[in-house]
Amino acid sequence: MKLSPLQKVRYQYNPKLPGMLRKGISEICVKNGDATQSVADQEKIQALFPNTYGKNEITFQIGKNTAEAKKQVVGVILSGGQAPGGHNVICGLYDALKAGNKDNVLYGFKGGPSGLLEDDYVIFDDEYIDSYRNTGGFDIIGSGRTKLETAEQFAVVAEVCKKHGITAIVIIGGDDSNTNAAVLAEYFAANGTGVQVIGCPKTIDGDLKNEDIECSFGFDTATKTYSEIIGNIERDANSAKKYWHFVKVMGRSASHVALECALQTRPNVCLIGEEVAAKKMSLAQISNYIADSVADRAAKGWNFGVAIIPEGIVEFVPEFSVLIAEINELLAGEKTEQFNALPTWKDKYAFIEAGLTKESMAVFAILPESIQQQLFLERDPHGNVQVSLIESEKLFSALVKDNLAARKAAGTYKGKFSPLHHFLGYEGRCAFPSNFDADYCYSLGYNAFMLIQYGYTGYLSKVSNLSHPAEEWKAGGMPITKMMNIERRNGKDKPVIRKALVELDGKPFKYFAEHRDQWAVETCYVYPGAIQYFGPSEVCDTTTVTLALEQE
Ligand code: FBP
Question: For residue 422, how far is its CA from the centre of ligand 1 (angstroms)?
Fold first, then answer.
């Protein structure tokens, strides 16, 4: 494989570990913290996790290693969407494992959780690992979205572990994957398999976050990558002065990515799904809000601007959620075939009009036809609307256009509105990890091995104090059950890690809310430029604005 000059030099980068892990494996000991309880539904969670519930939080510190000397055979999987730094979790795990005992072995199960079920693996060696150090992507072993959640699957995994003599599994994933890691740990403990399970917090969406996880890995690099591009778009907008750019950014549900990009680049508009839900905003109100910025700027002679739209926005608009639910109902079972058999869009439209309530039909009617068709034509295997496919950047620019046309007719707007559309998602998920993500991920992996060596199971590898220099980071572990509560999923009560949405009384949102009126009318753009890997620490090692504000 031909290597880029950056890749060659990134191989040589030495990720920074927290101070307490720097002296080497033989100088790491455990400091016991308090016993833990789940964040809610304590009795129910305890009953579901009798063997792994209530364990102590722990931190590592410098001191004589007292762990039992035993050969470790560890399996690792990557789960879900790519996030920059995943390779370094594996590199950190491998390095610690080999530093602990050169006979220790690391299996990488391929293609996500299904690799464990299908016993599809590689055994890592130095050469293999060295060719992935500090690189983006999950191509080292691949990833997948198979869920490991049934007793039948766990029994298969137990067999695979027995076959290879595996003593521990590390699951690198988001909230669902770490929930499943806790359930698997409980299964192994209840069945006396002796196999430990450790989780690592991953997702660019930034919604795996709580009082123990300061941020999931990948969020830093992905948001810096998107912010670089948004900054470039802002500069282009400010140079050409003729386009309004509608930029949708990834984040399946929560709006953390959009908010962070707004804090970095100061666009004219940024929608936050959680605020839209809290204020029960309608599509008309949202488009009116954006149109205000367009009109105010046009009045100054500025017919250009930038608006950031979070990927998950439409699900937060109450009237839109009702519409989606009604459409799913309208097409349930055989009715899909009936609908598909209708020859023209006009016939289909009449079918829709007859089936929706008056309120939902009113919402449907204001959507651009391309979005209307998308709602009915692109559905998942269960027949449900695929909300994530909705081109919300085009939806809002079309609604703003209508709004401005009405203002023009009323004589309150005289500008020119030329929208352009962008979707930033996959562009950031496999970027070369920033120094922060390279360091954080390597530390998470190294730390995961320490948890294994000390015999912990059902724990999440925890590295905290992240807005400080790496030397001051704290490494340790937290029982995953501590982060759980009971939620209704697919008609059943399930123990899950609570997804973190943007907090409207949190410092990052408040900062944004205090400044956005000015950003809406004036041109306050900030151009962050590309991620820097070499140079002064204040340029190369900074964290996200979100983390800095949360920890100030
Ligand atoms: P994870 O939650 O698995 O980390 O993935 C998040 C994400 O990147 C979302 O931002 C996006 O909506 C989704 O994955 C896209 O999924 P896919 O890769 O399957 O297209």
Answer: 17
Percentage of the residues of the chain whose pLDDT score is greater than 70: 99
Q: Of all protein residues, whose CA lies closest to atom 15 belonging to ligand 1?
A: 81
User: Parallel, antiparallel, or unpaired for β 56-62 and 459-464?
Assistant: unpaired
Report residue 282: phi and psi, to 5°.
-90, 170
- Residue bearing the CA closest to ligand 1, atom 16: 81
Would you say the C-alpha torsion 144, 148, 154, 158 has a positive or negative sign?
Answer: positive
Q: Which residue do the tokens 């809610």 mark?
A: 40
Query: Probe ligand 1: pick from 252, 311, 387, max atoms within 8 Å of CB?
Result: 252
- Reported as a pLDDT band with limits 50, 70 and 90, residue 251 is very high
Q: Tell me, what amino acid is at 347?
A: D
Residue nearest to atom 18 of ligand 1 (CA): 81
> How many angstroms does the Cα of residue 172 sit away from the middle of ligand 1?
14
Residue 118 binned pLDDT confidence (cut-offs 50, 70, 90):
very high
Average per-residue pLDDT in the chain? Answer: 95
Q: Compute CA distances 134 → 14, 190, 214, whole Å.
A: 9, 38, 21
Rounded to whole angstroms, how far apart are CA atoms 219 and 205? 6
Considering only CA atoms, which residue is closest to atom 19 of ligand 1?
81
> How many other CB atoms are there within 10 angstroms of residue 265's CB atom?
26
Stated as kind and residue range, the H or E segment containing 97 is helix 86-100
Q: What is the pLDDT of residues 394-409, one digit of tens each?
A: 999 999 999 999 999 9
Which mutation among 138, 177, 215, 250 tests ligand 1's pocket best, with the greatest number of atoms within 8 A of CB?
250
Question: What is the rounded CA–CA span in Å between residue 128 and residue 125?
Answer: 5
- Say how many C-beta atoms besides its own lie within 10 A of residue 402's C-beta: 14
**pTM above the 0.90 mark?**
yes
Q: One of 95, 175, 176, 205 is an active-site residue; which one?
A: 205
Ligand 1: residues within 6 Å at CB? 80-81, 83, 174, 203-205, 250-252, 311, 388, 429
**Residue from 88, 55, 59, 35 nearest 444 by CA:** 88
What's the pLDDT score for residue 377? 75
State the distance from the centre of ligand 1 to the C-alpha of 112, rounded, in angstroms. 14
Q: Dump the DSSP string for 138-201.
A: STTT--B-----SHHHHHHHHHHHHHHT--EEEEEE-HHHHHHHHHHHHHHHHTT---EEEEEE
139 counts as catalytic: no
The two tokens of residue 199 are 């989780």
The answer to whether the beta carbons of residues 262 and 512 sit under 8 Å apart is yes
What is the average per-residue pLDDT within 425-454? 98
